[in-house]
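Quick illustration for those who missed Monday's session on complexes.
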Amino acid sequence: MNQVPRHIAIIMDGNGRWAKKRFLPRVAGHVKGVSALKKIVNHCNTLGVKYLTVFAFGRENWNRPQGEVSFLMRLMIKRLDKELAELHQKNARIRFIGDRSRVSHEFISSITNAENLTQFNTGLNFNICVDYSGQYDIIQAINRIIKEHPAESITEETFANYLLTAGQPNPELVIRSSGESRISNFMLWQLAYSELYFSTVFWPDFTPQELDHAIAWYNNRERRFGKTSEQL
Ligand code: FPP
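Prediction with farnesyl diphosphate bound:
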């Protein structure tokens, strides 16, 4: 019986290439990508995963063509609003992880509504990273620490409490789809000991069965945290 990781993080990549392969506009890949995500969220819920974090829009993604950026933002708002009641009914807790200062008011209002409605839920913690980057996360933590602890030396534990994921465990398993094997500025601090699973499948084709493969792979890893095999 496979042990299910407590926290799974996913870099959902390959939407554009999925669409291109089918002679469709890139945005069609994002639409299909959201449907794939819905199935993965449901599957995580069924499996009893406690935390699922998805990289939906990286800080560097603002550099994409304006039309694609605004499409993606509207798509996320629309789907979040549409799925909210069901996610709430399934006891999921939704959180936004990222810089709240640059996304639109509509986006903030949609995500705040989702966060408020689900704040006391105790099932799957579903983190949506938008305008997020690992370097941004570290810098915003440092800036807050400087204000609150001037001239003090701080520990790793204190530092982690200032990250946008404060209070949440680090991911044990990170999945990146589409054959790329990069971290791309995702959760740089939090991934220190994560197992990294790279799938060749484009995100819109990523199924619950693919997730099961990744979890089975994770179960065959020996997580040593610096120790030797004999010490485990
Ligand atoms: C990467 O593919 C995918 C994205 C930049 C968008 C991912 C976002 C979603 C699936 C929406 C999530 C929705 C909610 C409500 C959380 P790419 O465009 O970089 O693909 P490419 O590398 O093939 O060009």
